[in-house]
Amino acid sequence: MIIICPKCARKHKVNLDLIKDHLDSGKNISATCRSCKYKFPVLMDQPLESPSIEKAGYRAASRKICVTLSKGGVGKTTTSVNLGAGLALAGYKVLLVDTDTQGQSSYILGKKPTAGLTELLTKELTPDECVVKARNNLWLLGGGKSLAGVKRIIDRKSFGAEWTLAEAMKPLENKYDFILIDTSPGWDQLIVNVLFYATEVLVPVALEVMPLHGLSEFLKSLGSIQKYRKEISLKYIVPTFLDTRIKGPQILYSELKKLYPEYVCSPIRYSESLSEAPSFGKSIFEFAPGSIASADYRELVRKVSMNNTAFEKSMSK
Ligand SMILES: Nc1ncnc2c1ncn2[C@@H]1O[C@H](COP(=O)(O)OP(=O)(O)OP(=O)(O)O)[C@@H](O)[C@H]1O
Ligand SMILES: [Mg+2]
Q1: Using CA positions, which residue lies closest to atom 25 of ligand 1?
Q2: Which ligand 1 atom lies nearest to the CA of residue 242?
Q3: Atom of ligand 1 at shortest distance to CA of 272?
Q4: What is the mean pLDDT of the chain?
Q5: CB-ligand 1 contact for 77 (6 Å cutoff)
Q6: Minimum CA distance residue for ligand 1 atom 23
Q7: pLDDT tens per residue, range 128-154
Q8: pLDDT for 85-130, tens place per residue?
Q9: Is residue 74 lining ligand 1, measured as CB closer than 6 Å?
Q10: Is the distance from the beta carbon of residue 71 to the nearest atom of ligand 1 less than 6 Å?
Q11: Is the pLDDT of residue 16 over 50?
């Protein structure tokens, strides 16, 4: 059997005879990648369908990444959509979950879903009925105004309110390589739910005025969640709106790198294409494939997937 590391995509041959006892016991099996040391659960009941993963092997659990920061307008939605679109182009199966009442993710992808996260949380429809296909390899669980009512339902729950999203998402898990969750600005019960569901946090930080304060405040809030949920951790800080023509943003970028060297990714530069693409219902790869923004998001896809080769092969098609 072949197992593929979801982080670095290294293939490992596994002798089924050696793990037969574990299989027979029905216990969960986890594997540690010999190459990058990433530990991940292995699901034995789901044959692979993704082009990113060997047909003869078995799918690893979905990576659940939330894109979040309390401050508004920092590039959360732009990053969720374009990272999702880029991963999909690289051959990964991606589910993009929009937990924002603004419903921007659907708009950016030129979709008007008739159902989405609200219907999943209220159980009005089956999980598969709530998900719409947005592109090849890219599926969408849309947000929108109706989520406001769901937030009230969650608020009124007297027990286990923070697990509402995690429970509802269970049937959708492991069908995808990546589940990306876009959040609204601010801090509310739905964001707490996202942090009780995701395992990795990606924080876009706009290299404009006062970004570092917003980041440290958010990290404090994340710390308070981590006391109850050890599985979630900060993975990526993505500097956005880097305007290379002026000094201020570059100084902020250097400061960010000094403060959080292990998390800071290559920046997303300021680009008009990024603000224009949504009104055409296109990702940056469709709207301006040759732009600096497209190059920057490709770099982010490589960083997150840790899989340069597969991405480059499919992007050059
Ligand atoms: N690198 C960039 N260069 C230029 N414009 C950008 C860039 N990134 C995002 N934008 C634009 O900035 C605006 C805010 O971005 P976006 O909606 O992604 O932020 P957000 O954090 O999701 O906002 P909110 O907190 O309201 O949900 C959008 O109009 C978007 O098109
Ligand atoms: Mg947004």
Answers
A1: 72
A2: 1
A3: 4
A4: 87
A5: yes
A6: 73
A7: 999 999 999 999 999 999 999 998 888
A8: 999 999 999 999 999 999 999 999 999 999 999 999 999 999 999 9
A9: yes
A10: no
A11: yes
Q: Give the pTM.
A: 0.83
Q: What is the pLDDT of residues 50-86, one digit of tens each?
A: 444 443 345 678 999 999 999 999 999 999 999 999 9
Q: Residue 299, class by beta-carbon neighbours within 10 Å (0-12 exposed, 13-18 middle, 19+ buried)?
A: middle
Q: Which ranges in the chain are annotated with CATH 3.40.50.300?
A: 63-315
Q: Is the CB of 268 under 6 A from ligand 1?
A: yes
Fold of 63-315: Rossmann fold (3.40.50)
Query: pLDDT tens-digit profile of 159-197?
Result: 899 999 999 999 998 899 999 999 999 999 999 999 999
Cβ(271) – ligand 1 distance below 6 Å:
yes
Mutate to test the pocket of ligand 1, among 68, 78, 99 (most ligand atoms within 8 A of CB): 78
76 lines ligand 1 (CB under 6 A): yes
Task: Give the 3-state secondary structure of the chain.
Answer: CEEECCCCCCEEECCHHHHHHHHHHCCCEEEECCCCCCEEEEEEEEECCCCCCCCCCEEECCEEEEECCCCCCCCHHHHHHHHHHHHHHCCCCEEEEECCCCCHHHHHCCCCCCCCHHHHHHCCCCHHHHCEEEECCEEEECCCCCHHHHHHHHHHCCCCHHHHHHHHHHHHCCCCCEEEEECCCCCCHHHHHHHCCCCEEEEEEECCCCHHHHHHHHHHHHHHHHCCCCCCEEEEEEEECECCCCHHHHHHHHHHHHHCCCCECCCCECCHHHHHHHHHCCCHHHHCCCCHHHHHHHHHHHHHHCCHHHHHHHHCC
- Residue 155 has what pLDDT? 87
How would residue 31 be classed by pLDDT, with cut points 50, 70 and 90? Answer: confident
Higher pLDDT, 124 or 308: 124
